Amino acid sequence: MKIAVVGATGMVGSVMLKVLEERNFPLTELIPVASEKSVGKKIKFGDKEFEVVGLETAVAMKPEIALFSAGGDTSLAWAPKFAEAGTTVIDNSSAWRMNPKHKLVIPEINADLLTADDKIIANPNCSTIQLLMALKPLHDAYNIKRVVVSTYQSITGTGVKAVKQLENEYAGESGDMAYPYPIHRNALPHCDVFQDNGYTKEEMKLTNETKKILGDDSVNVTATAIRIPVVGGHSESVNIEFSKEFEEGDVRKRLSDFPGITVQDNPAVNTYPMPIYAEGKDDVFVGRIRRDHSQPNTLNMWIVADNLRKGAATNAIQIAEYLIENKLV
């Protein structure tokens, strides 16, 4: 089982390597892939070193699976070339997510849609993954009508340049800016680029990807995405209106029973999800579960997850594990 990690020297790529190792992923050969400037570098994996190769070399090596985290342009140009060589691509960019020919997969929710013919599989947006993990068991029970979500997103979602900007600001030094304003002691209501409708691309991902993953266009989502000076993960304040009545105890049980969800919800002892505790973990953490008394059948929740793990690397590797377990590669 040859596995290529495209973008192996990047922030998500390095987490992919870490997660592959932690989960004892059944690979026989690792192919780290990066841009030409990184070709020839050595990457340590387990007790071995592997040399970084370029994209053309990696295609010729015909890995069974390629985990892509190298940006949308690279995915659009190279994922089809890997697929033509017989490789199954799991892509972490937004390039293929809303393409009707390709599946958008969170394993706990819709991995059963996958077949051996799916050669390019899309990994959802990080904010969408943690949101949908909490919504799915509740939608199945009470039928969601509308979701209002405000995100508080880690700078790691932007990448290494953003982390460096924050470090420079902590130190009082100048340097390259990932954002149009300082992020230290600030909150930017600006994740990704603004669209003609006044929403950012990130906000529209939450709207559109939710419908596709749930397979239900009747679920309405409106979002505001905010970047905050946090490293550990993304947080979301979520207001959910259902078609049916619910009991809070039943909500907690359904969330607790759903694989990959940890409920942390005991305000009496200050127990609630926070990115400082989610960092480095694969679960999605849910708390502040309470009825919205301003209208019927409506619930408030707070959802936190490490955006580099379940929001990106871990979800992609879980897809790969599903493919192997079900002999789809």
From TrEMBL:
Domain Semialdehyde dehydrogenase NAD-binding positions: 2-116
EC number(s) from the headed UniProt entry: 1.2.1.11
Residues annotated as binding NADP(+): T9, G10, M11, V12, K37, S38, N307
Catalytic activity of the protein: L-aspartate 4-semialdehyde + phosphate + NADP(+) = 4-phospho-L-aspartate + NADPH + H(+)
Single Gene Ontology MF annotation: aspartate-semialdehyde dehydrogenase activity
An annotated GO BP: isoleucine biosynthetic process
Keywords: Amino-acid biosynthesis, Diaminopimelate biosynthesis, Lysine biosynthesis, Methionine biosynthesis, NADP, Oxidoreductase, Threonine biosynthesis
Pathway the protein contributes to: Amino-acid biosynthesis; L-lysine biosynthesis via DAP pathway; (S)-tetrahydrodipicolinate from L-aspartate: step 2/4; Amino-acid biosynthesis; L-methionine biosynthesis via de novo pathway; L-homoserine from L-aspartate: step 2/3; Amino-acid biosynthesis; L-threonine biosynthesis; L-threonine from L-aspartate: step 2/5
Family annotation (SUPFAM superfamilies): Glyceraldehyde-3-phosphate dehydrogenase-like, C-terminal domain (SSF55347), NAD(P)-binding Rossmann-fold domains (SSF51735)
Short name of any one Pfam family annotated for the protein: Semialdhyde_dhC
Active-site feature positions: C126, H234
Binding sites annotated in the UniProt record for phosphate: R97
InterPro entries tied to this protein: Asp_semialdehyde_DH, Asp_semialdehyde_DH_beta, NAD(P)-bd_dom_sf, Semialdehyde_DH_NAD-bd, Semialdhyde_DH_dimer_dom
Binding site for substrate: Q153, R227
Assembly and binders: Homodimer.
Function: Catalyzes the NADPH-dependent formation of L-aspartate-semialdehyde (L-ASA) by the reductive dephosphorylation of L-aspartyl-4-phosphate.
Family: Belongs to the aspartate-semialdehyde dehydrogenase family.
PANTHER family: ASPARTATE-SEMIALDEHYDE DEHYDROGENASE, DEHYDROGENASE, PUTATIVE-RELATED
Protein name: Aspartate-semialdehyde dehydrogenase
Native source organism of the sequence: Christiangramia gaetbulicola
Designated gene of the protein: asd
